Amino acid sequence: MQNHGYVVVGFCPIYPVSIEPINVRVIPKLPVTLCEISMTSPDVIDGSGSATIAFIANEVGVSTTTVSKVLNGRSDVAPETRARVEASLERHRYRRRARRRPAGTNQIDLVFHELDVAWAIEIICGVETVTSAEQVNVVLSQLGGGHRPPPGWLDGVLARRPLGVLLVLCNLTPAQRQQLERQVIPVVVLDADSATAAAVPTVGSNNWNGGWLATRHLLELGHRRIAVISGPNDVLCSRARVAGFQFAHDEAGVPIDPKLVRYGNFYLNAGYEHGMELLTRDDRPTAIFAGSDLQAMGVFRAARRLGLNIPEDISVIGYDNLPMATWIGPALTTIDQPLRDMAGTATRMLLDLARGAELQTNRVDLVTELIVRESTAPPSASL
To answer: What is this structure's pTM?
Structure first.
């Protein structure tokens, strides 16, 4: 799959976004203030109590067509004009009135930071379980490792007019989010980064508890030099797992060597590269807590290359509990993160928002659980 491309799961024709013509009549000059007009005149306030496109155009001094172009994310508007229109839209909290969507737009956009086969399949299966029951199609895309969609991405979304957008380990810029809000296209984020606004609905797992459970297990086995390899430092789940790792040490009164705390990505290469660095130290750790099962597999490879046995020479614990964790040798001790349930929960939230329902909470964290298998054991007496 090419970066920024998309695949439609199921058949769904794409309809262009159309703007309904707006009838504007001239209002005689009245001896009242602008504020009084906005409170009483049907030409500036619609039936829902929201400012109209005509009112926004009149305030900014542009045509209704220009306002419509800004609302639809069209590029043929001067930057200064766009800024003035967007400021007016935000000032008056303009929201497009909900209208019946054309048949064929019964779909959602599922956007990944990066498609990793094993981890992403769990997310996709969780989404599909909900969407298939609701007869909703899925448009799948990835950002090639980026955490923000490129400018052209929004044009495609506005053209498709999906029921909503589900973002995985990525987020929108404030401007992109405002554009979708004005088009009444809701957004839900799965595993948010540190820049995610509190108002954006998000779903994750209890990552702090997962980090604490993993580290406490290793400490209870007798390990005192424990390394952690987490994901990107700007992703909340990465930082939360490290925070749980630190708390477990504080709780046990065991100091942490800062050189054993690493950040990278959640993939095999990060586990292998950091594993090689950690395991070739003179004072190497006796256990490694990896931020994902894929990272843990990278550590396995590093250990084998160095002639170290797991768990006799080095204990390794992962995170996610992917199906493959039971098939590698030795079977991987890991933290179970209910990826399918997380994806299903996020999808149901998104469809509820698309139907106009209010969410009971904007943040959902599902429970994590320690799964003990064969890759962890007490440290060797010789270490």
So the answer is: 0.73
